[in-house]
HAD family hydrolase (Shewanella saliphila), 355 residues
Amino acid sequence: MANVTESRVHEARFTSFGTTFMGPLLSFFSQSLTNNVPDKAPLYFLAREGYWLEQAFQHHLSGANIQRESHYLLVSRAFLFKIMCNDSRSYAYSLKSSFSGAFYDLIRTRFLLSDAQIKHIFDEELTQELVYLPEDKKKIVAILEEHATRIEDIISPSKQAYISYLKSIGVTEQDKLHLVDLGYSGTIQSLLGILLDKDTHGHYLISSNPGEHVIENHNATMQGYLKENVKIGDGYLPLDRSMFLESLLTAPFGQFRGIRFNTFDSSHFDFYYGRKVASQRYFHELEQVMNGALSFCQHAAKHDISFTTDELETMLASYLGKANMVPHAVRHIFDIDDDVTGNGTVNALQFFGLA
């Protein structure tokens, strides 16, 4: 009986934390989407954050007695870098972040190519060369273009399967894609627009690059609902410490890394993911946190409860700027992986000195 009681206490702490911290944020974002996206336009929620953002949106709609179409869309920057590895239009994004090390490590970590794939495409001597970004960008582009045919042979199966997957959830039939993510610069939005040759409208909690853009002859609108025109390092706490939010807003699986047609049924797909971090290994506890947040979204919509940007920023400042605001029982789930930038796994609370 003592163990049962202790378990219920822990569950209550998780749920309560989700209600008070994530609930207002998800309610604000969901209400903003409802008020700003055309009624008949399906919303596609991106990457790992989209797993919970989409559920929060549907809970908000349920509370408000509204029906709208939405989908969770599997995607990651690194996966798009991979299937567009021979598309020069993508290099402005895939070769943007700094890097120093062997060419082999750049291709393996930035483009998710396996050891066998790298050896099939590139000579061993080339893979051991040291490269630096941004200094060697032109050199790296030249190498990729020189090996474009071999790269195409490697990435084609994944690319074909992914396009079919997007078609299966209605993405390819849209004239304009309405995409939702936590933020911030719109890299995935830009790459999807290039890949599919479509206009896009990105809806973000925070947008560092808002407004109308023309990307490879297509219009890309980026809109932030909490804040716009801020970049990491500007002093805006919800963005500077966005890792804190991302560690909770995560799907139950690791980074999306690959897709194939199912061997026995080509109308189905097999998905492949990277390693799990703490919030995914203890996903049953994260679910308790998010259940509190989702219930709050539904309750707030049903009773017409809303938050201003000032109110939400004040609440976020407390959790993101003060130590010991997070219950001890929840702290172990604040890990996040940042492989694209080479930082590995990082604990958000420890990183910002909040533990």
Observations:
- The first helix runs from residue 2 to 36.
